[in-house]
């Protein structure tokens, strides 16, 4: 028995009140002189002992009443043991971690051996199910009591390159418990990697009928080195040497020296030694990579010195391609835009495109399909046949940049899109003399790299009816400056001014170079992307117009990753193992994708026992409304019982006190 508020027990000093009433305030009779007793009626006086007895009982009732009131304020309680819940027809779930970190040493083998030992201990009729998990959960067997089936499912578990996700395991455990409507005893066989815990602990919650039993296969931290990242270009367009930057990390390690090797297509390019600080990182720079034409398989390796060699290599893909031609159409007397546009591409180090200039008259025998993109720079006329070819080119996925000046404004319509040209506004005649960019859509690829257009002066702009086009930039008078119109699978980008320094001073500002570079990449669909992706990432296989055309994907093992049905219907693919995926699309956009494991798996630090205990409590605690697990002690309040006693004593004291008062009146 205990008290939740024991300091109220100090109120027991109030017991002195009935003591003072009964002992210190005794009834005293004051003698009165009287001349004769002949007028008094003779009566029998009450027994003094009987009166004392009633006084003592009343004294005891009042004392006990005060004590009970004090005890009630102190909130008494007793410990009550919660009986264990009945778990009939319980199903044992054997969850075996097969993530990348389980490749360290014999972790996976130890986990499978421990799981088999548990299967052998199951009694006749006890059922179990085998799961394996990394970033996703895979069911390896049905719920059964056949030991041979369970052992075969355990033997079938292979190591994977995925990262650990205990949140995904918890979600699956909740789903299984709801579908079976039976209590589960989840036996978790894992290295309990700390990085596998979710950032939101609530994701680990389990149902009331789920019991969690962790079986750690490791008891201490293990040091580990890894190639954490590689920075390299995705594509190159010349024969210059390529820079590759690799980062080597150490987890739980002492200061040590590692040999780092750069390989290309299986051939060693260069090896360097690097000193990795204690629990730190070190960078290694290679400047001697000569990339041959086509797709190339790059690797950075370190000499293995730990129990997890699977993360000692980092793959990257690099392609050397020929520059793609881009057509720049301009009037014969207006070649300023060509000069600035070409110079901006060269200043950006952009060797992916070669600019082919042409006048409108020279486009008669040209096919836009041969070019990565087409620029129409303030042209006064476009041959109708070439304009029709441009429309077909855009519908098929091509892109066109249209720059408008006073020559193009005379047409009345924007080439290719047919948007109406409302007016040509020359701000040099107005009081402000020029306009500036008042609003930019910074999410658009053309502006994403540099959105500092505030100091650019536009002396002339062509006002265009935007229609359904996306407005990317506006001037201070709300004139649309940059429009993006999608036609079919392609885009037409309309710039409502010129690309030279006549109608604006844009080419004289630093923001012109990134604008031209990003616009060329956007129009030419030159999405460089990263040199590698992670396991469980996705890649797009086809666009909407390529339905029914087969896509061939070869995985790192040299096997086809798609079935015949998937090859003609799948929109994307998920990478499930490290290495190189060779993707061959029907439109000729082939790709070599390098896939690496999530480097969070390289930190082999296990979760703390407190963390695992908290996780177990989420399974046990939800079974009780008050959050108390079965078999624990729960305080049971006695307050109501004490108050009932106070009520009973109050009634008894009132009755006995009234009777005592009536006796006193009679005696008087």
Word description of this protein:
There is one protein chain. With 668 residues, this protein is of the alpha/beta class. It has an 8-stranded mixed beta sheet with strand order 17-16-18-19-25-24-23-21, sandwiched between helices. A 5-stranded mixed beta sheet has the order 5-4-3-6-7, with helices on both faces. A 5-stranded mixed beta sheet has the order 9-15-14-11-12, with no helix packed on it. The chain has 13 helices and 32 strands.
What features would you highlight for this structure?
668 residues; elongated; 25% helix; five-stranded mixed sheet; single chain; alpha/beta
- The helix content is 10-25%
- Radius of gyration over C-alpha positions, nearest whole angstrom: 43 Å
Strand content: 25-35%
The strand count comes to 32
Shape: elongated
How are strands sequenced across the largest beta sheet? 17-16-18-19-25-24-23-21
Structural class: alpha/beta
Mean pLDDT: 86
Biggest sheet layout: 8 strands, mixed
Task: Please tally the helical runs, counting DSSP H or I stretches of 4 or more residues.
Answer: 13
| Unreliably modeled segments | 47-54, 621-629
Alpha carbon gap, first and last residue: 49 Å
How do the helices and strands line up, and which of them pair or pack?
Layout: E1 2-3, H1 16-24, H2 48-73, E2 76-81, E3 91-97, H3 107-120, E4 127-133, E5 137-139, H4 147-155, H5 166-180, E6 184-190, E7 210-216, E8 224-231, E9 235-236, E10 242-251, E11 256-264, E12 267-276, E13 281-289, E14 294-302, E15 313-320, E16 324-330, H6 336-347, E17 353-358, E18 374-377, H7 384-395, E19 399-403, H8 406-409, E20 421-426, E21 437-440, H9 445-448, E22 460-464, E23 470-475, E24 480-487, E25 490-495, H10 512-523, E26 533-534, E27 538-540, E28 552-554, H11 564-569, E29 572-574, E30 579-584, E31 591-596, H12 609-621, E32 633-637, H13 639-667
Parallel strand pairs: 3-4, 3-6, 6-7, 9-15, 16-17, 16-18, 18-19, 19-25, 26-31
Antiparallel strand pairs: 1-2, 2-32, 4-5, 8-10, 10-13, 11-12, 11-14, 14-15, 20-22, 21-23, 23-24, 24-25, 27-29, 28-30, 30-31
Helix pairs in contact: 1-2, 2-13, 3-4, 6-10
């Amino acid at each position: 028995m205990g008290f939740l508020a024991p300091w109220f027990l100090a109120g027991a000093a109030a017991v002195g009140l009935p003591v003072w009433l009964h002992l210190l305030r005794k009834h005293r009779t004051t003698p009165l002189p009287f001349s004769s007793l002949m007028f008094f009626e003779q009566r029998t006086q009450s027994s003094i002992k009987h009166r004392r007895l009633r006084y003592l009982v009343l004294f005891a009732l009042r004392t006990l009443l005060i004590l009970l009131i004090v005890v009630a304020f102190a909130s008494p309680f007793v410990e009550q043991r919660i009986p264990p819940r009945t778990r009939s027809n319980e199903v044992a779930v054997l969850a075996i971690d097969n993530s990348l970190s389980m490749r360290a040493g014999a972790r996976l083998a130890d986990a499978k051996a421990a799981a088999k030992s548990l299967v052998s201990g199951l009694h006749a009729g006890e059922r179990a199910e085998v799961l394996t998990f990394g970033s996703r959960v895979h069911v390896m067997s049905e719920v059964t009591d056949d030991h041979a089936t369970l052992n075969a499912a355990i033997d079938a578990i292979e190591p994977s390159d995925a990262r650990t996700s205990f949140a995904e395991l918890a979600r699956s455990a909740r789903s299984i418990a709801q579908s079976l409507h039976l209590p589960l005893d989840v036996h978790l066989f894992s290295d309990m990697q700390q990085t596998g815990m979710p950032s939101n602990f609530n994701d680990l919650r389990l149902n009331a009928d789920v019991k969690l039993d962790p079986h750690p296969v490791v008891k201490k931290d293990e040091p580990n080195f890894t190639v954490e990242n590689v920075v390299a270009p995705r594509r190159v367009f010349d024969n210059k040497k390529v820079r590759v930057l690799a980062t080597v990390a150490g987890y739980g390690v002492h200061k040590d020296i590692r040999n780092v090797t750069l390989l290309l297509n299986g051939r060693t390019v260069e090896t360097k030694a690097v000193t990795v600080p204690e629990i730190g990182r070190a960078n290694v720079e290679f400047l001697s990579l000569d990339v041959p034409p086509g797709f190339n398989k790059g690797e950075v390796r370190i000499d293995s010195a730990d129990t997890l060699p699977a993360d000692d290599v980092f793959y990257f893909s690099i392609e050397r391609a020929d520059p793609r031609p881009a057509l720049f159409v301009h009037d014969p007397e207006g070649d300023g835009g060509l000069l600035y546009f070409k110079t901006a591409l060269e200043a950006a180090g952009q060797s992916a495109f070669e600019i082919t200039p042409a006048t409108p008259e020279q486009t008669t025998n040209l096919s836009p399909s041969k070019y990565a993109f087409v620029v129409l720079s303030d042209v006064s006329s476009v041959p109708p046949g070439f304009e029709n070819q441009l429309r077909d080119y855009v519908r098929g996925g091509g892109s066109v940049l249209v720059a408008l000046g006073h020559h193009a404004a005379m047409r009345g319509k924007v080439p290719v899109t047919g948007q109406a040209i409302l007016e040509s506004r020359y701000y040099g005649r107005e009081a402000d003399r020029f306009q500036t960019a008042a609003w930019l859509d910074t999410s658009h690829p053309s502006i994403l790299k540099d959105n500092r257009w505030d100091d650019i002066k536009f002396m002339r702009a062509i006002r265009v009816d935007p229609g359904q086009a996306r407005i990317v930039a506006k001037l201070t008078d709300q004139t649309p400056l940059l429009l993006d119109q999608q036609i079919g699978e392609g885009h037409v980008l309309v710039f409502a001014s010129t690309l030279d320094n006549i109608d604006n001073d844009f080419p004289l500002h630093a923001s012109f170079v990134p604008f031209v570079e990003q616009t060329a990449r956007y129009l030419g669909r030159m999405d460089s992307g990263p040199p590698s992706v992670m396991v469980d990432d996705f890649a797009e296989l086809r666009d909407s117009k390529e339905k029914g055309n087969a896509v061939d994907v070869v995985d790192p093992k040299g096997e086809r990753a798609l079935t015949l049905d998937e090859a003609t219907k799948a929109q994307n693919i998920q990478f499930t193992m490290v290495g190189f995926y060779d993707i061959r699309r029907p439109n000729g956009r082939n790709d070599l994708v390098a896939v690496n494991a999530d480097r969070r798996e390289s930190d082999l630090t296990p979760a703390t026992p407190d963390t695992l205990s908290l996780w177990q409590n989420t399974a046990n605690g939800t079974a009780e409304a008050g959050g108390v697990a079965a078999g624990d002690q729960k305080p049971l309040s006695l307050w109501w019982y004490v108050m009932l006693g106070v009520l009973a004593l109050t009634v008894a004291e009132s009755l006995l006190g009234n009777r005592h008062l009536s006796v006193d009146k009679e005696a008087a």
